[in-house]
Amino acid sequence: MRKITFSDATREAMAEEMEKYPEVFVMGEDIARQGGIFGQFKGLPDEFPGRVIDTPISETFIVGGGVGAALGGARPVVDMHFADFIGVCMDEVFNQMAKARYMFGGQAKIPLVLRAPDGLAGGGAAQHSQSVESWFIHIPGIKVVAPSNPYDAKMVLKAAIECDDPVLYFENKVLYKESGEVPEKEDEVPYTIGKARVEREGKDVTIVSYSIGMKNARAAADLLAKDGISAEVVDLITLSPWDKECVLNSVKKTHRLCLVSECVKQGGALAEVAATVAEEGLEYLDAPILRYGAPFTPIPFAPTLEKLYRVYPEDLVKGIKGVL
Amino acid sequence: MATEILMPKLGLTMTEGTIDEWKKKVGDAVAKGEILFSVETDKLTNDVEAEADGVLLAITVPAGETVACKTVIGWLGAAGEAVPAGSSSAPAEAAPASPEGEGKGAAAAAAAPAAAPARAAGEYVLATPYAKKLAKEKGFDLAQIPATGYKGVVVAKDVESFVPAAAAAAAAPAAVKASPLAEKVAADLGIDLADVKAAHGRVLAEDLLRYIAETREKKTDDAAGEREEVKPMNGMRKAIAKNMLASVQTSPTVTFNLGIDMTEMKRYREQLKAKEIKVSYTDLLVKFVAKALTEFPLLNCSVEDNKIIYKHYVNMGVAVALDSGLLVPNIQDADKKSLTQISAEVKEMAKQAREGKLPPEKLKGGTFTITNLGMYGIESFTPIINQPEVAILGVNTMEDKVVVRNGEMCIRPIMNLSLTADHRVVDGSVAAEFLQRVKSLMENPALILA
């Protein structure tokens, strides 16, 4: 099967959707002339003249304008440059984008995708490295997705564009450069927002993650396998609404749950998973739920400190062995 | 009514104690005032008396275990009386009172997974939700299932591997299935087939061979072990190890050596002796050093959080060597006591220390320490400070040496003093001046009255 990068996969998704729906357009900072700071929009402006638009540095406008365009019948994709900047347009996100369809009694819809590159990128420091997905899973009216590989990146983005509700699409900056198998268009299987995937079957412990956290999940599963411990790896893909059935079914099988993400552990996106399993699947647990995430501190700039800030597969292995 | 026997708190600083020995067995009658057990603290071993008449109903903390003060260690009551529910006969279950309880519980359970766990009726059993669900489905009593999980919790595999007593009894008489060859070889070699693990259902000759190889390996390991022996430290040794390490990590030290001409001191001692006052050189040192300390407050202080605590009294510690270690009881207000008082106290302290009867308060509140290795012919050493003190004086052997006095060679009894001081507060010049002062006092004993 052909291999392409995560970044190319998102561009393919964009091109195919723009081809299919004339009402799809993209706007954001430095995306038309520069092609996006991570190259994820390269080539699109030539292919679709006038439909890839550079904006002023105003997140408030980017999302506010996108919501207006969506209400007017367009299917906008708006780019946040860095997920860290969403704070600037928070009202547009959680009061306008998330509420409009509900407040208009369903007479309006907001088929908008908000793309937000996130994560530790090596020296990005406190304002350009964050993973802020947990803020948005607390907001009814927004769907939150965070794919972990090129194939998902493409299929989830296509699903997000076709979705009639606003979708926050978190794409990890480090994953952009990573290659993976992506089938030809005719062999693609569409993604349904809200579905998780059991990426690897196992029987001793369930490791749940998403986005870049999946690298830790997979690596930990590999290390555990060497010691004869079989880990089931679940990729949530969608954080809101998340696939409760998939996780509970896995825990019923393995009786142990380990959660890992790159975001701050306190109040992290997977805290909801931990709480739900404790609430609805307690009798299936044979060990305390293990959680791994970043410490409760801003992201340090110094490379040595950033190293300490990260979670490593060995951390998971140690924790899991401790409760087996 | 049954009453609890608690780990006593012997002195302010005691936080935990080790049961050295139970002097009574469960079921023994005990009279009030009789010695019930002995406790080893970080300083001493003390006998503890029964507080009432009765029968020792239960021992919940066996000898050798360490628990926090006020932990229930046993029960006293009337003969045949039941120990109240909620107590237990296993130390692991008394865990909540012990700071290391959890870890120990796990270790104890792991060491003997087959043994029935000792839990009192109605006691809450720590188990994972899934283990509870399984136990319920299988109809097992959770309280009967030994715990091997993390933190001593009953986990699913404990339930799955659990064989109820009735089932085990039923299974026991069943003979081990083995091939005829395996049976013959086992009989010839005197191997119990029940010990041999079968790879496929019944024991085959190859299983037997593997078993023989494994046990031989194990024996070789044991033989290697005979050249070494592992023994746990007793309470005093642990305390010494801990305190010495802490001292070295706390105090940057410098040791100063100075020879004292003991001619006059020897004469002074003879004069006292002639008047039937017998004192040792240690007694004299306590007296003279105490005087010097009143003049050098920096040698008689302690340090806490960047503060210097000056002591307006001298509690002079005297190191006493024992077979099992070392104790440093102190003479309180040594600077205000007469030589004969000091002498009597030093003798009494040394005797009590050797008999293990030193009252705990004698081991507290020292402000300076003297340690004498002179009887071994030692000429110089670097003693380690007895924290939180800031200095310690090492006393060496007294030897006749050729010295020069007034341009002439002569023979004088010389004794070296080795002073170790904490440089955080005692600078070199201060330590040297102090040692000079001790020398001057000891070479001119009349100055003790000045």
Describe the structure.
The complex is a heterodimer of chains A (324) and B (450). Chain A has 324 residues and is α/β, with parallel strands linked by helices. Chain A has helices at 6-20, 44-47, 59-71, 90-97, 100-103, 133-136, 150-162, 213-226, 244-254, 271-280, 303-309, 313-322; strands at residues 3-5, 24-28, 52-54, 75-79, 113-118, 143-145, 167-172, 179-181, 197-200, 205-209, 231-235, 238-240, 257-264, 290-294. Chain A has two domains: 3-187, Thiamin diphosphate (ThDP)-binding fold, Pyr/PP domains (Rossmann fold); 197-322, Rossmann fold (3-Layer(aba) Sandwich), CATH 3.40.50.920. In chain A, the strands form three sheets. Chain A has a seven-stranded mixed sheet with strand order 3-2-4-5-7-6-12, with helices on both faces. Chain A has a five-stranded mixed sheet with strand order 9-11-10-13-14, with helices on both faces. In chain A, strands 1-8 form a two-stranded antiparallel ribbon. Helix content of chain A is 35%, strand content 20%. In chain A, 51% of the residues are buried. Chain B has 450 residues and is α+β, with helices and mostly antiparallel strands. Chain B folds into three domains: 1-84, RNA polymerase II/Efflux pump adaptor protein, barrel-sandwich hybrid domain (OB fold (Dihydrolipoamide Acetyltransferase, E2P), Beta Barrel), CATH 2.40.50; 175-225, Irregular (Dihydrolipoamide Transferase), CATH 4.10.320.10; 236-449, Chloramphenicol Acetyltransferase (2-Layer Sandwich). Chain B has eleven helices and 18 strands. In chain B, helix 5 runs parallel beside helix 6 (205-225), helix 9 (281-295) packs across helix 10 and helix 9 crosses helix 11 (428-443). Chain B is elongated and about 100 Å long. Chain B starts with a strand and ends in a 7-residue tail after the last helix. The model of chain B is unreliable at 86-114 (pLDDT under 50). Classes of the chains: A alpha/beta (324), B alpha+beta (450). Chain A binds chain B through residues 255, 282-288, 322-323, and chain B through 128-133, 149-150, 155-156.
